[in-house]
Amino acid sequence: MDNPATQRILRPMTPDSDILIVGGGLNGPALALALAQSGLTVTVIDALPDTARKLADFDGRGYALALASKRLLASLGVWETVAENSQPMLEIKVTDGRAGEGPAPWMLHFDHAEIEEGPMGYMLEDRYLRIALLDAMASEPRITQINGETVVNQSVEMDHATIELASGKTITGRLLVGCDGRASGTASRAGIRRTGWDYGQTAIVCAVRHEKPHGGIAHQFFMPNGPLAILPLPANRSSIVWSESTARAESIMAMDEAGFLDALRPAFGSFLGEIALEGKRFSYPLKLTIANAFVGDRLALVGDAAHGMHPIAGQGLNAGLRDVAALAEVLTEARERGEDIASPQVLARYQQWRRFDTATLALATDTFNKLFSNDNPLLRTVRDFGMGAVNAMPGLRRGFIREAAGLTGDLPRSMRG
Amino acid sequence: MQTGPSTIDESEVAKFEAMAAEWWDTEGKFKPLHMLNPTRLDYITRQIAAEFGRDLSQEAPFKGLRLLDIGCGGGLLCEPMARLGATVVGADAAAGNIPVARIHAEQSGLEIDYRHTTAEDLAAAGEQFDVVLNMEVVEHVADPQAYLNACHALLKPGGLHICSTINRNPKSFAMAIIGAEYVMRWLPKGTHEWSKFITPDELFAMLRQAGLDPVDRKGFSFNPVLWSWSISERDLSVNYVTAAIRRH
C-alpha cells in the first residue's frame, strides 16, 4: 500500500462519525435519534450550551404536531415521555371573522371522529419537546453532542466532509446535515442560495390562560390583517399564533401586558371567558424562504434550513419532521444496501422526495394566506361560500382533515400507522 | 495479493482515475447501470441476509462471507458488498477495468481484491466462495452451460449463486436491443445478441444441470412513468434475477 505510484491518491480515512448534524434544536435531535436507531453514528453540534436549551419553565411557545409527526416521535421513543403533557386536538373550527363582528355565518368544522386514525394532532409546549429530545440523545450511545460551539468553516473531500469549530477543533463525517434554521450557515457556506419573499406580516406567538375549558378544539379565525389561531394546551390554556401587519405587530409587541391583552381581546372573542397571559411573547416575521437545492456535495438540508414556511397552519415543524423521516429512511435503505450514504445518487432521492412536497405546501399556504388576509367584500363572499361548500361535503372535509393530520402525500414509513 | 495499482505506470494513473470517475458518474455513460443498481442491491442483500441468517441493520452484516463478483466492471457491486463487511474478490475479463476499479476502491477506503481473470480460471485454481454474483454476464458468454458449471465449482457447499440476465421474447428484443441500444442509446449498439438471451425456465434447467438448486426468481421491472426500477414478483418479461444454492 506504500507504493509510490499510489501516493497522489487521497488516503481514505475513517471519519469521526457517519453523520454530522449542525443545529441541535428540534429537527437536528430528531434526525440524530432516527439515524442512530438504524445503526449510524452521529455528532450533533449546537451553538448554545445544552443548559440554555433546556428551559424548565414554560416560555409560551407550543407546537401543533400533526398525527404523522406524533408517529415519528413515537418511533423515536420520545412520544411516551411527552404524551402526558400533550393536548389532543379533537376538532378544528375555521371561521372567517372581522374584529368586533363575531364569526361569519359559514364555518368550517373538522372533527377527528370523521377519520379512523384518531386526533388529527397534538399540542405540545416547546419546553417538553426540547427536553425530551435532548434527554433521548443523551442516552443514545451512537450520538455525540458538542454544545456551545460555533461552526466557522466546512469543506468536502473525496470520502468525507470536515467542519471546523470556533475553538479550532475539526470534526469529520461522511455526510453533513444542516438543521440550522432559515439563516442556515451550513447552506450558505456550501454556496446554496435561497429564494423567498416577505409577507409584510409578523406572527405574535404566546400562550393565554382562560376561564372556560376549550374542549380540545382548535380555532382558526381569518381576520383582515392576518389569521389568528387559538390552539388548545392542557388545562384551561391555549397557544396563540396571531398574524398582523409588521407595523401593527411591532406596536402590539411594545405594549405592556394589559395593553397587549386589550389588543388581543376583540380578535380572540369572549367564548373562553376572561384571558390572561402565560409566559413570554414572541414575534416572528413571516418570510417564505426556500433553498435552491436541498442537497449538495456530502450535504443535506433539513427543516427551515431547506424551507422556511409561513407558520399559518403550524406546518413548519411538521414539514421539518417529514424531512427528518424521509432523510432517515433514504439513508437507512442506502446503508443496508451497502451504498455510500452520501453519494449524489442517494442524496438526490431525498431531494426529489421532499422538494416537490415542500413547494406544493409552500404555495398552498401562501395562496391560502393571500385569499384569507383580505377584506375585499367579493373575496370574502367567495371564501365564505367556499368554506360552506367544503363543510357541506363530507368527502372533501375528510380530505382536509387528513391533510391537517399530515397523512397525505408520499409518507415516510415511520409516519405511517 | 496486491490491492493497490502497484503494477501500473505512474502516467497511467491519471487515465485510470478519469475512467473510474466515468464508471461512477451516475449521469454518465453507465447511467442505466446506476439506475438499476439499487434494485439489484436490494435483491442481492436480502437474499444473502436470508440465506446466511444476517441482520442488515447490524454493523458489517456480511462479515466472514467470501464473495465473488464476476464481470465486476468498475466495482458497482463489489464496493457495496465490501461496505457490508464481505471479503470481496472482483473478477473481470477486461483487463482495463481492474486498475480502474482498484483506484476507486482505494478512494472509497475499501479493500477489494480485483483480478483480471475468468470464472473458469478461478474454478481451475480451486477458489471457493460463499456467494457468487453473476449479474448480466451469462447472456454474453459463448457457452452458458460450461460457464454455469464453473460457477458451481466456485461455490462452497451451502453457497449462494445469484444470476441476473435478460429474457428472450419480442418484448425483451424491443426493450433491450431497440430501446436500450438504439433509441435511448443507453448501451453501445451490438452489446446484446438477442439469440443469446435465455428464458427463466432455460436458466433454471441449466442451473440444475450445473448441480445448483434454483430457489427463487424475480423480475427487475422498469417503470417508464416513474422512470425507475423495482423488483417484481410476476414481471420477468425482460430483466430477471435468480437465486440458487449449491447443496453439497
TrEMBL record, chain A:
Q: Name one GO molecular function term.
A: FAD binding
What are the recorded Gene Ontology BP terms?
ubiquinone biosynthetic process
Keyword Ribosomal protein (UniProt): no
Gene3D superfamilies cross-referenced by the UniProt entry:
FAD/NAD(P)-binding domain
The biological pathway it contributes to is: Cofactor biosynthesis; ubiquinone biosynthesis
**UniProt cofactor(s):** FAD
Which PROSITE patterns did the record assign? UBIH (PS01304)
A single GO CC term, please?
Answer: ubiquinone biosynthesis complex
Q: Which UniProt keywords apply?
A: FAD, Flavoprotein, Monooxygenase, Oxidoreductase
A Pfam family matched in the record: FAD_binding_3
Enumerate the spans annotated as FAD-binding domain.
17-355
Which InterPro entries does this chain map to?
Answer: FAD-bd, FAD/NAD-bd_sf, Ubi_Hdrlase_CS, UbiH/COQ6, UbiH/COQ6_monooxygenase
Which family does the record claim for this protein?
A: Belongs to the UbiH/COQ6 family.
What is the protein named?
2-octaprenyl-6-methoxyphenyl hydroxylase
TrEMBL record, chain B:
**EC number annotated for this UniProt entry:** 2.1.1.222, 2.1.1.64
Q: Which reaction does it catalyse?
A: a 3-(all-trans-polyprenyl)benzene-1,2-diol + S-adenosyl-L-methionine = a 2-methoxy-6-(all-trans-polyprenyl)phenol + S-adenosyl-L-homocysteine + H(+); a 3-demethylubiquinol + S-adenosyl-L-methionine = a ubiquinol + S-adenosyl-L-homocysteine + H(+)
Query: Which sequence ranges are marked TM in the entry?
Result: none
- An example Gene Ontology biological process: methylation
Q: What pathway is it annotated to? A: Cofactor biosynthesis; ubiquinone biosynthesis
- Gene3D superfamilies, per the entry: Vaccinia Virus protein VP39
Q: Where does S-adenosyl-L-methionine bind?
A: 40, 71, 92, 135
Highest taxon above the source species: Bacteria
Please tell me whether the keyword Cytoplasm is annotated for this protein. Answer: no
Pfam families for this protein: Methyltransf_23 (PF13489)
Under CDD domains, the record lists:
AdoMet_MTases
> What Gene Ontology molecular-function terms does this entry list?
2-polyprenyl-6-hydroxyphenol methylase activity; 3-demethylubiquinol 3-O-methyltransferase activity; polyprenyldihydroxybenzoate methyltransferase activity
Q: What does this protein do?
A: O-methyltransferase that catalyzes the 2 O-methylation steps in the ubiquinone biosynthetic pathway.
Q: Which family does it belong to?
A: Belongs to the methyltransferase superfamily. UbiG/COQ3 family.
**Protein name as catalogued:** Ubiquinone biosynthesis O-methyltransferase
Source organism per entry reads Salibaculum griseiflavum
Gene coding for it: ubiG
